[in-house]
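Session log. Operator J.P. requested a structure for one protein chain; no other inputs attached. Running the standard single-chain path with token output.
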Amino acid sequence: MLASCTTAPPPRIVTSDVAELSGMEALLRASLRADHGCVYAHTDGAPVALVWPEGYTVSGDADSFEILDAEGEVVALSGAALDIGGGGVSSTEDAWVGLDCATRSLWMVGGIRPSEPAATD
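Structure written below.
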């Protein structure tokens, strides 16, 4: 009898029903980690649930994953220091996907890039 090889599903993300980035420009410095099957932005404070544009997905597993945009391009890697543009919102919308992961503070993603080291004087 062959042993079955099961692969854990990738962690889940919250996606909105809008295909574009939010356009908000506040800054959240964080890294992405999976917690209880959901991807959260981890800062010095409490984890934050990111709300990605429609069509964004996750590839990988809870230990090592990447966020892909609607065209399949990698936009973020787990564990990497990131500057996440966007802004906080106070409630969810029924049309969003992954609402089971929207149990923390919510941040509408407006852009994302690797963090740059802080400037020193």
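Operator note: Residues 36 and 80 are 19 Å apart (CA to CA).
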